[in-house]
Amino acid sequence: MSSVIFYVVNVIRMVIQIYLFYIGYAWEDIHYSISAASSFIAAIIILLLHKWIPEFIISIIYLGSIVNKSIQNTRKEKITEIVEESNKVPLNLLRKVLGMDKKTYSSDMFPWADKFGYSVKRDLLIIPEDRVEKFIEMLAWEKPFEKEVANE
Q1: Could you tell me if residue 125 is inside a domain?
Q2: Domain that holds residue 47
Q3: Which of 50, 66, 125, 138 sits a CA distance of 20 to 30 A from 89?
Q4: Are 54 and 93 part of one and the same domain?
């Protein structure tokens, strides 16, 4: 963060110096005074950021986790509605709820489905009638399906 601040302040300093030199000021007059002022400004910015940035970054991370949790809950509700109606779930939606990246999904989805007694047809996960209630229960967990995997 410090490097970025000093870089930006120096770019601004150079632009100001070049402009002032271009309009006729002597280089010796502008170079030292603007360099000292820009270093002082950058140091003050660093001190202020040292005080406020950690809390600011933590706030952004916390806000992101709240938004993510809301999105996850909406996806879980949507999957629950779909499963109750048709016993089928779009795999891409389930992948997002399970937090699988595309590589993990392509290698782990079929074994995962077999492990829980589900089947995969095209881009849908098919849940047998007798497993729908358990599927919905496990989907509601904070980390879906993890407890069940740990118990096996």
Answers
A1: yes
A2: 2-62
A3: 66
A4: no
Structural domains of the chain, count: 2
Residue corresponding to tokens 């879980």: 76
Measured from the Cβ of residue 90, the count of other Cβ atoms closer than 10 Å reads 15
Lookup: tokens for 143: 């980390």
Instruction: Scan for tokens 């389930």, then name that residue.
Output: 94
Q: For residue range 5-52, what is the model confidence (pLDDT) as tens digits? A: 778 888 998 999 999 999 998 888 888 888 888 888 888 877 777 777
Give the dihedral of Cα atoms 87, 88, 89, 91; nearest 10 deg.
140
Q: Is residue 69 part of a domain?
A: no
Q: How many residues does the chain have?
A: 152
**Token pair 């001190």 is at which residue?**
47
Residue 79, amino acid: I
Is 120 inside a domain boundary? yes
Tally of helices (H runs) and strands (E runs) in the chain: 6, 3
CA angle 100, 87, 118 (to 5 degrees): 55
Backbone angles phi, psi at 88, to 5 degrees: -130, 145
